[in-house]
# Entry
Amino acid sequence: MKHTYLMTPGPSPLAPEVKLALAKDILHHRTEAFRNILKDVHEGLKYVFQTNNPVLILASSGTGAMEASVVNFLSKKDKVLVVSGGKFGERWQEICKRYDLEVIVIEVEWGKAPSIDEIKNILDKNKDIKAVFTTLCETSTATVYDVEKIAKVVSQTSAILVVDAISGLGADKIKTDDWAVDVVVSGSQKSLMLPPGLSFVSISKKAEQLMESSNLPKYYLDLKKALKAYAKDDTPYTPSVSLIVALKEVLEIIKKEGIENIWEKFDKISKALREALKSLGFEIYSSSPSSAVTAVVVGDISAKKIVSGIRNEFGISIAAGQDKIADKIIRIAHMGYINAQDVVMTLSALEKTLKDLGVKINLGDSVKRFQEVYYV
Amino acid sequence: MKHTYLMTPGPSPLAPEVKLALAKDILHHRTEAFRNILKDVHEGLKYVFQTNNPVLILASSGTGAMEASVVNFLSKKDKVLVVSGGKFGERWQEICKRYDLEVIVIEVEWGKAPSIDEIKNILDKNKDIKAVFTTLCETSTATVYDVEKIAKVVSQTSAILVVDAISGLGADKIKTDDWAVDVVVSGSQKSLMLPPGLSFVSISKKAEQLMESSNLPKYYLDLKKALKAYAKDDTPYTPSVSLIVALKEVLEIIKKEGIENIWEKFDKISKALREALKSLGFEIYSSSPSSAVTAVVVGDISAKKIVSGIRNEFGISIAAGQDKIADKIIRIAHMGYINAQDVVMTLSALEKTLKDLGVKINLGDSVKRFQEVYYV
# Structure
């Protein structure tokens, strides 16, 4: 009779219609029927990514799409700028270094947003920077970066802007074309409410031009080949058929709900959740908090103990921190199929778990606070 | 009321328990519950691959695992031998060339098996060959290669043997350890009866040693990282959770049935199918026919017309050829969840389709012949 709930920043829960779609018989991928689905999915992705450019689908986790966004646009010894303030910013650095690029790093303090002036400054001094890599929502610190302002700066240069929006897309606002973001990377198991296994890369005309000269080695992640297939609503290699069939359902749900309404919903949920967590005495970890995931500093308590306590008693998965802040913060996601009622239920379970761990809190305080802020 | 049937060499049909597993709620991948599943899956894969070495799981199509088997074992300018007689042998060549390796190619005539002497000869003359790449079942020509004999030759040298068993594994016999095959690559959508989206790489101790010195660039496909995670029943990046949960079901089915029995079943089905197709006047395309897929030359008729005819009227997907023989052959798969009854039904539909296309055949001939050969 025990329920399980995913309140983690990926994977996120599945909608019932998505689960049913996953249980369907497999379609052959080289058929008219599948190409029609792919056509709809390509259109639906443009809407979620807010772009008129192609959004390519890869059979890989998000990291595969991040690597694709390095090896397809750059060439040996190219200079790049990585704006990095968490585990996923570090991943951009690692990938770029693995391919022997000349990497300039802006080390942003974890939990803070980057300084736009610093980015501008470095771009001014390094006219040969070919690409700027950064993050929409830095999942490890629950911090949203001001991609609109970053794009304003980068779009004035010859560099392309590549944004890891794996956890952010569909919760933190991003307007790919309006803001002039060249490449947006995402994954299936966050706001797109699917199991992990698909990743996405949107490609602007400016980025497409860089692809022409790119000489880094690639095969499976070759986006030029993928782009050619995309034009015929096809894929270069066998696609993840069942995930794509389920994605069609998801994109219809999102379209119906309206992306602006979804952004607003998660903005509202995250605001109310922050107030609720503050009412328990917690401090919000990020000074630029994301609408996709919320992190609080747990002080003397062990984050891992909270996470295992709430999972063992309530079947609710929330996340501790990662790397150097692994035991210092807890993270609660609000993305995809998650709604305010899920957050209420999580807060109620969190209160009980904290009480069991000997923390002095009053049962009901955070739930009440969430309700007060959310239901206005 | 129209049924659909997948008689293609990938994707292959899903068993009912697999579909139900795919429809389950998502587990978080960094939990004890998921690690336990991964542990069982790792054991089950060893059985199917007939190895005591690790079988790594990637979230990619089979091509990703092929590329991983190049970039993780080799270094810049290394000399390799590719034994290639079809589209997937060509893929080995393409990947190796993309990474600037020195590639010697044995061009095997399409539909034929390679000469073991020729392989031995080249290895004798090129002691510096680091790896030999070949195929178990060359899907494009429905041809099985004698991997046991190839391994006998390669294992006498310092080179590793890397076998693309994407469509072959689980239908064409392969005994990875007994035969001393170093690296076996496979995919989820063939005999493993899953949707596409997972790929696999088994790694011998000899291959693991080559990994230590490999200097080709990689990140997402880094098997050293994957091997480290594997030791803790974990994955370096977010795994395809739902496919792995369903894989556990599949591996239990295979274990119960017994891999030897499965090899024997498909051997018997393929023999009966070849006789059945010959009774319609077709010539078997391959002189070394696979137990996973059967190809026949269609002569003056268009293969594509047969494929679309049988799909449109009966909902049955079979495959035409690929590349230079695209319109010259049809291919019928027998792998994974497919059984003799599916083949009977396909033959009956094929007869009707051929009749509609004006081919002079007698209805019932091939079905009868299949029954006569199979039910003995």
